[in-house]
Amino acid sequence: MGFTIGGIREIRTGSRRRARSSEITAVAEYTGLWGWDVVPGARAVRSAGGRADCSCGAAGCPAPGAHPLDFAKELTAGATLEEAAAAWARTPGAAVLLPVGRRFDILDVPEAAGRGALARLERMGLPLGPVAATPGHRALFFVAPGAAADLPGLLYRTGWDDADLDLRPLGHGDHITAPPSDHAGQGPMRWLRPPTLDSAGNPPQARLVVGTLAYLCARVCV
What we know:
Order of helices and strands: HEEEHEEHEEHEEEHH
Strand content: 15-25%
Number of strands: 10
Mean pLDDT: 88
Distance between the termini: 54 Å
Strand order of the largest sheet: 8-5-7-6-10
Shape: globular
Low-confidence stretches: 1-16
């Protein structure tokens, strides 16, 4: 039997429900297990011309689908599954965003460099935090808060201060899109190294990883 319009609509509705359920479960995990705050975020919406518009509705939004919703209430660490479900019912389709600069900062590098650094750091037995990957082929290393402010000094002390590195710090006031949400209309976020009870609440000091990240950025991204 062929598909009917009603059947297609039902399949699409079911897909949206599964996506919402997945994000609600992720939010509850982030707040309840890992102790992170979560913010409902905007999504990018493709226009008929293929342009990415933002669900916030602002004309010329500078960060389509990659910023918090102004009217949405933040969920603090410890929020339950029921509270997560209620929050996403008030903001249906919202992306899952994590505030940076509280429990962690982020070192953002090209994914190729990040994968190489991750393999080296694991072989060295160094403590590691979660590592996320964006659909735009970036790797986001979770490190202890304060890394964004300390990065220039860390690069100086490791001899990388005069190198042209594609290594970006994110700190207080920044947000990242968390798996499994779509990032800026480009596709879903994913984990290269998922959080654990140890790594989520105690990410490594940036000084333990920045030298390796800088070296791989210089070597891979030429």
